[in-house]
Structure formats: structure tokens, C-alpha cells
Amino acid sequence: MQLWLYCALLAFAAGGCLAQKPRPCRSPPLLEGSMTVITQNGSFSAYAKYAYDAFLQRIRIRELVHANNKTFFQDALLLYQKHVMYLINHKNQTCKKLNLTSQFHPMRIPCNSTFLGQVVLGSLSAPAEGLLVNSWAGQATKEQGQYMLTFTEFGCLPVSVLFNSPNSGWVVTNFFNIVRGIKEPSQFIPPPFCEDDPLETEEEGDFFTAFF
Amino acid sequence: MQLWLYCALLAFAAGGCLAQKPRPCRSPPLLEGSMTVITQNGSFSAYAKYAYDAFLQRIRIRELVHANNKTFFQDALLLYQKHVMYLINHKNQTCKKLNLTSQFHPMRIPCNSTFLGQVVLGSLSAPAEGLLVNSWAGQATKEQGQYMLTFTEFGCLPVSVLFNSPNSGWVVTNFFNIVRGIKEPSQFIPPPFCEDDPLETEEEGDFFTAFF
After folding, report:
1. Where are the domains of chain B?
2. How confident is the model at residue A116 (pLDDT cuts 50, 70, 90)?
3. How far apart are CA A53 and CA A60, in angstroms?
4. Which residues in A lie closer than 8 A to residue B33 (C-beta atoms)?
């Protein structure tokens, strides 16, 4: 009887340990936050505020971009279910409506990623002094590059994304100031002056169009 | 009477707001943790575990270094009060004892740094999902470079250090897995096989010698 109890306890403990290995996860479906993007050679950098709705596949992103020695503001609304994106110019009250060619990518760790490790940013020695994060690596087949993703253990929120490809070199994206939920749902609805703009079917755009 | 009360409350509230602006801080005097260092061109990278004692001005650092296409392990003990550092080779049971030329720099935000901003890594929307950090920038006069420091708001623990100079380019250091206190104080005492080694007065070293 004691042997059975011992075996059962051992199996339970082993199961518990195995279950503690982090698994690829998906971020909450409604988020707002900020991010910075910078390339290895420093020729491109951006500071952006975004709102992300994975239910209705919508992203609104407002960013200050510095590229090719020019600095400009960009405001983009991406409606993946409708396959359209708007580049909004508030100053001139005009819109550029583009055919959105790319698919919606939810914020998540891809299932075929390799777990690199778990670390604490700061410390767990005292409350509010540390953040437990997991890092993952993998190959982005379409872009022929490698990525390294760091997401929080609790909440599956993005902290940083490193991407490297022969075309881009290293691109570092840092995420911060995330809140769960959407403060203002109307930001996913095109402004009134965008509505009458016919779709410029000859021009196409994707997520990266918002940055250039 | 009501006017006085109003003024007093306003002054109290204003004082409270002003007092909330982060100030340069100093890390706890006894710490252990890990760090990674990488240069912009990727020619140098290191993963290190360190123990830091600001009371007695001692640092022990064990690191795996990749530089100039070579990978090697380095174990260094820096005793700033005695002005000596040891490069310890456990395999051969030998030590290199050097004259430690640099001063001890406590982990801290220099007082003349400029406050850049406060952000949350992750989110404060739920417990354990976020970490409040402050970023500071300044000039390192001796090295003729600029630095950007990110430390936790609570605990004043290092998260990242960005340094840029004409000589080095960008150098990115990330800190993690910090614990308050020293697990094993004997790591600051040179191993027995180091004691008899005479000081090689002709050779000098500083903190960066530990990485090369």
C-alpha cells in the first residue's frame, strides 16, 4: 500500500513539474499599449501607440516615425476582416484607403517556437520589483528570418521582439504601457471624412505600410 | 475659512504631485544577478552571473564571452578596497593577480542624469503582469559617450543600460534574475590557490578586463 502511495505521489509531482514548463501562449484579445521599433543601423526608428482588437481583427496605430533622416507622423487603421486599411491625415482631413493584403496575425507565441528560458526582470525578492518573462525563438519562414520573442509569464503580454533577416538586419521592438481592454472603441471606426473615399484598388498595403 | 482650507489642500496636492517625480536612486548594496552584454555590430557578446557588494566594494563575475569569433569562460574577482583583481582559472588551479586601477562605481543613477520617462513593462491591469521602470539619460564624460539607464521604480534595480561612444558604438546590457543579498559570501574570498601568487604589478586591470 505504501509503495502505491509513493508511486502515486511521484507521478503527481512529476506531472506538476512538467506542467510548469511554459507553453506558447496568446495575448489577451483586447489591448492598448505603446511600442518602440529600432533597426540595427539606426536608420529607422518609431514610437507608436496602438489599439489591438483580435475579436474583430482591427488595429489602430499612431506613430512618430524617423526614417531616411525624415521625421513624420502616421495614423493608420487596419480592418483585416474588410481587407482595407486607412492612412489618416487629420491636418488635411483626408484619407488614403488601401487594399489590405496581409492576414491578421494575433499577438502570440507561434506553436513551433523553441523555448529559450524564463527570467525575472528586476527581482522577486520584494513585491512590485520584478516581472517574470519567457523567451522563445523561431524561424519566420515567409520573411526568411529568425525571431526572439519575450512575453510575460502571467498575462502573455509582449515585452520585446527581436527579428533578424538578411534584408532587415536586426530589428528590435519593445512593448510597454499595456492596458487590457479598449478605452475608446470608436477609434476602430474610420473618421467621417474617410467614408466617401473610393478604394484605391491599385495600391496595396499591409501592417508595415503603416510605418512608411 | 473655506478659502484657507482650499489653499491648504491645493498646496498639499501640488506637493504630493511634485514629490512623485522619480529621483536618481542607488541600488541595494548586496545583490546577485545575471546580465547579457552585446555590441551593435555583434562582434562581442557575453552572458554573466555576478555578485555585488557595495559595502566592501567587491564584485565577483563569472561569464561566458564570445569575442573575435572565440568563446571562452572567464571568472574574475574584483576587490576595489585592496586595489587588486584576480582572473581565476579553475581548470589549471591558477590565478592572475592584477593591479586594479579603476574606482568602485556603485550601481546607481548618476545625480546629473536627465529623467526621460516612466513606463510599465507589461501591464498594471492585473497583478504580477507588469513592472514599473524609469529611464534616464546622460553623458559619461570620461568615456565621451552617452548612456541610457532603465531601473525599476521600486527597489532601484537595473533592467537595461544602453551606452554609445565613438569607440564602442552601441553597447546593450540587460540585467535579470536579481536577488537581494549574497547567497555565498565566501565567493568574495580568493580561492586558496590564488593566495601565493605575487602581484603582477606590471599588469593592470579594471572592470572591463574581466570581459577580455
Report:
1. 30-105+181-211, 114-176
2. very high
3. 9
4. 123
